[in-house]
Write a structure and sequence with these properties.
- Strands 1-2-3 form a three-stranded antiparallel sheet, with no helix packed on it.
- α2 crosses α5 and α2 packs parallel to α6.
- β1 and β2 form a beta hairpin.
- By secondary structure, the chain is mainly alpha-helical.
C-alpha cells in the first residue's frame, strides 16, 4: 500500500499531455474513491448502477452486493470521458457486446503499464497498479477507523 500523501501526489500530477497516463491515473483514483473497487468491477459498471447518489454493484469475484455513496470527485472523473454511446459508466469497454472480456483484459494491461510509469516518475519503490489503489484505501481506512 501507499500512504495518503502518495495518493494525493498521484491525484495532483499534471498528465494533460499524456492522455493514456491521465486515464490510468483516473482509474486508479476512481478505485480509491470507491473504497478500493477492483478494476474488473469498475470496467463492468453501468450507468444504471448509479441512482439517487448511490453506486450499487455486485462484486464479480464474490457476488456480494456493495453500495458506495457517490461523491463529487467520482463525478468529476466520469465527466472527463465520453461514454455517450455505451451503457458503461467508464470508457473501459468501448464496444458493447463485442468480446467485452478481451476489451477488459487489454485495458487492464494498458492501465497497469501506465500506472507503473507514473510510479517510477514519483519515485515509488513498488510497481504502481490498480491493486495498489485497493490496498491503499483499505490500509488508510483502517488507520482512520473507517469502514
Amino acid at each position: 500500500a501507499v500512504p495518503l500523501k502518495v495518493i494525493r501526489q498521484i491525484r495532483d500530477m499534471d498528465l494533460a499531455l499524456f492522455p493514456a497516463m491521465d486515464f490510468a491515473r483516473d482509474i486508479f483514483m476512481f478505485s480509491f474513491y470507491t473504497r478500493g473497487m477492483s478494476f474488473i468491477d469498475m470496467a463492468y459498471l453501468k450507468k444504471k448502477d448509479l441512482q439517487n447518489g448511490i453506486l450499487s454493484y455486485r462484486r464479480q469475484k464474490t457476488g456480494q452486493q456493495l453500495f458506495v455513496k457517490w461523491e463529487k470527485p467520482m463525478q468529476e472523473l466520469i465527466d472527463k470521458y465520453d461514454t455517450f454511446d455505451t451503457p458503461y459508466l467508464l470508457p473501459v469497454i468501448r464496444n458493447n457486446g463485442v468480446d467485452e472480456w478481451h476489451q477488459y483484459q487489454n485495458a487492464a494491461h494498458r492501465i497497469n503499464r501506465n500506472l507503473k510509469q507514473i510510479g517510477k516518475q514519483i519515485g515509488l519503490d513498488i510497481p504502481l497498479t490498480t491493486y495498489v489503489a485497493r490496498h491503499a484505501w483499505a490500509s488508510i481506512a483502517q488507520s482512520k477507523n473507517t469502514k
